[in-house]
Amino acid sequence: MHTFIQRSAACLLPLTLAIAATSCTLEVTEDESTGLEASVTAMLERSAEAWNDGDLNAFMSDYSSAATTSFMTPDGPVYGPEPIRAGYEPWFVADAQRDSLRFEDLSVRQLPPLIGIATGRYILHQDDQVTATGWFTIILRRAGDGWRIVHDHSSPSPLPEETPELEAPA
């Protein structure tokens, strides 16, 4: 019995290595990566437009409808599109004070083959005055109808006048 196991292992090892070597090569071509970047850029432009227009449905349309879709809050993660939507609703009620939104410093990478990650800065502003800003990371998954956000983590940054001055080393 022991000899049978050794022979079987000796025969299966090269086959296993050959399968592993051929099935684990995942590459992202430049065209795919560029397509993701263009898709995410367009998505964020639509998102900012929906925010600025007060259209919550359009704003939420880029989030995945999966129950596992998550959004990080100061109190921890929130799961599912409805709780995420509920967190945004106060900003979209009639006559809500909502500053204009734009995105800057966008960096997009594809993690083969169906996952993308984007980082950047969100900026809320009234005319030329920045009222809030921070960094975000979104994880995206390619679905049949395009890329959808499956995780969103946004962290506010202090405004320049709120940033404490650093002391020079002694």
Helix percentage range: 25-40%
Can you tell me the residue ranges where pLDDT is under 50 for at least 5 consecutive residues? 4-31
Quickly count the helices: 4
SSE sequence, one letter per element? HHHEEHEEEE
Through-space gap between termini: 75 Å
Secondary-structure class: alpha+beta
What profile does the largest beta sheet have?
Answer: 6 strands, mixed
- Average pLDDT, all residues: 81
List keywords for this structure.
single chain, 170 residues, alpha+beta, Nuclear Transport Factor 2, Chain: A, six-stranded mixed sheet, 4 helices, 6 strands, 35% strand
Describe this entry's structure for a reader:
It is built from 4 helices and 6 strands, in the order H-H-H-E-E-H-E-E-E-E. It has 170 residues and is an alpha+beta fold. A 6-stranded mixed beta sheet has the order 2-1-6-5-4-3, covered by helices on one side. The longest helix has 24 residues, at 30-53. The protein is globular and about 40 Å long.
Could you write a compact summary of the structure shown?
The chain has helices spanning 2-23, 30-53, 56-60, 81-92; strands at 70-73, 76-79, 100-111, 115-126, 129-143, 146-157. The protein has 170 residues and is α+β, with helices and mostly antiparallel strands.
List the SSEs and their pairings.
Elements: H1 2-23, H2 30-53, H3 56-60, E1 70-73, E2 76-79, H4 81-92, E3 100-111, E4 115-126, E5 129-143, E6 146-157
Parallel strand pairs: 1-6
Antiparallel strand pairs: 1-2, 3-4, 4-5, 5-6
